[in-house]
Amino acid sequence: xxxxxxxxxxxxxxxxxxxxxxxxxVRFLAEYFSTLSPAALASACRFILGKESDKGDVGVGxxxxxxxxxxxxxxxxxxxRRLYLEFGDVGSSVEKIFSSKIQIQLGKPEPLTITDVQQxxxxxxxxxxxxxxxVKKKFLVGLYARMDGKQAKYLTxxxxxxxxxxxxxxxxxxxxxKAFNNEEVRNWYLIVGDVGALAAKLSRRxxxxxxxxxxxxxxxxxxxxxxxxxxxxxxxxxxVFAEYKYDGVRLQAHVKDGQVHLYSRRMExxxxxMPDVTASLSAAxxxxxxxGEALAFDEGKPISFMMLQRRLHRKNLSQxxxxxxxxxxxxxxxxxxxxSSLLGSSLSQRKNRMKSLNLEGNVRMAYHWTVASPEExxxxxxxxxxxxxxxxxxxxxxxxxxxxxxxGSWAKLKEELDTxxxxxxxxxxxxxxxxxxxxxxxxxxxxxxxxxxIGKAYSGLTxxxxxxxxxxxxxxxxxxxxxxxxxxxxxxxxxxxxxxxKSTRHESGFALRFPRIKRVRxxxxxxxxxxxxxxxxxxxxxxxxx
Length: 546
Ligand code: AMP
What we know:
- The protein is α+β, with helices and mostly antiparallel strands.
- It has 20 helices and 21 strands.
């Protein structure tokens, strides 16, 4: 018999939270998942990952939750704070409140099901505008009134976005795979994106490969970094497509019946930051899902990435800004056209379909060449740099679109800018497996005889190197700060980076984008490190072609 009560859900979550073994977590969840109907399973999976509703944000903050609990249980604010300090977690405090006080008698309440909770969440998400917070509070009071301590604890934690039972996305996906005996779950998730929709599909025993859905972003296909044209030629060993590497932001555009949504690489909806691109796409006569790069672009040339960033950071985009920083969307892939998924088609087929769309203006198809020899690749690479692009992306013409994978069907070739030799001036303790280690290094360059900070780097050193570095930093420190140490000029690092930006955050007036430590330059003295002047030169040079 199916037991889809919220009580059983809460008990299962408790059981999962009590074991530290990942395998056991997967087993408990898999056993539970296999007993649920598709709809209840979809909700259960979403709830575990802290998502209340696919109708939107339920818009319930801490204060509405507390008002609901106070109204129901007559608890004072200071009492709530005391419990919070005692337990250090809202969910457990709420459990205590619901367990220790006699429940207001409403007769024997009907047990709540997972689906009941889902319906209330959906209604909360749909209620917006003035007075909606009162409506939401009433909904919450209705839910809490029918719950015992354990259920109230997990309801609160779901609303808080964090279940604290160690059930990560990976564990939930593995449990789904185990429950429904399906090894493709992780790959399918990259296409479906929504754990609820995926769970329902599995539970319906639907074994057909999933297709991208409009307005649910698909994970982006990624490129393998290669060193030089010879390596690229060897990697593919045959003629391949080459496109310019655009230094902008990756965008997936979903266009359906005049409605447009744009998604970033992190799957965030960024439609509002690109009203000009959205307007062009909404005029399209066909439904489609496109992949490409949005680039600040004017008079036939790319403009610096910083200008695009400036535009992305604006809250309100005036017509003046849109005119001053025009953005073009260079489309290089087509994932769906009308009702047909093109993920399994070859890249050359996808390019042919793309051509028939006749994209032009500020939404245009990225141009591609066919290249094979190292010389051809090198020549095109130089041309791309001369025209102000970042390098090349090379793609196997017969490859399918593989979401979320850096499988080698796409390769990228870009020039690393010069490296900089910098002096370590401080360090902070890291998190997680780097807790207790001084892994985050702050470094500086010379401005006359003063060191001026230019960035922080977390990556590039091996675990052993970080350990040695921590010992060294501890030995030479001038003093401790609340989360690290300050050290005198002594250690020189060689750092690589993607570009240099102006910045008010660091004393030098510049910041490095994606700095990574290439090596510790034991062979160099602090006096030999680079200067702000050199940074300024590299900065000027990097955009001289744009
Ligand atoms: P990187 O950010 O250096 O790892 O390079 C990969 C990124 O290059 C992709 O995620 C895209 O955002 C970007 N990119 C620029 N031009 C292209 C292109 N023609 N094809 C694919 N990706 C591109």
